[in-house]
């Protein structure tokens, strides 16, 4: 649902949006279900987002110049 809201925002505001989803089989039924940790890929996901952000900014800057 959150991704749908982001895409609705992008369309309404004519903005570009990238949405990352860290999907697991957990349903947030127990304490700590959203705590992915290193073994659950949290750090790898953050590295991916950082890399994509750097490329996004680089491409955006080249289009503005």
Descriptive tags:
54% helix, mainly alpha, 0% strand, 2 helices, 65 residues, flat
Would you mind describing this structure in some detail?
This protein has 65 residues and is mainly α. It has one domain (2-20, 37-64). Helix content is 54%, strand content 0%. It is built from 2 helices and no strands. The N and C termini lie far apart (36 Å).
Summarize the structure.
By secondary structure, the chain is an all-alpha fold.
List the helices and strands and how they pair.
Blueprint: H1 2-13, H2 42-64
What is the number of beta strands? Answer: 0
Order of helices and strands: HH
Largest pleated sheet: none
User: How many whole angstroms does the radius of gyration measure?
Assistant: 15 Å
Instruction: Give the % helix.
Output: 40-55%
Helix count from the secondary structure assignment: 2
Tell me the number of structural domains: 1
Uncertain parts: none
Shape: flat
Work out the strand percent: under 5%
Report the mean per-residue pLDDT as an integer: 81
Helix-strand category: mainly alpha
> What's the N-to-C terminus distance?
36 Å
């Amino acid at each position: 649902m959150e991704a749908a809201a982001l895409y609705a925002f992008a369309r309404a505001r004519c903005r570009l949006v990238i949405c990352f989803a860290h999907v697991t089989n957990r349903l947030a039924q127990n304490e700590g279900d959203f705590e992915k940790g290193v073994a659950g890929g949290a750090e790898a996901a953050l590295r991916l987002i950082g890399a994509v952000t750097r490329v996004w900014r680089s491409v955006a800057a080249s289009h503005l110049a």
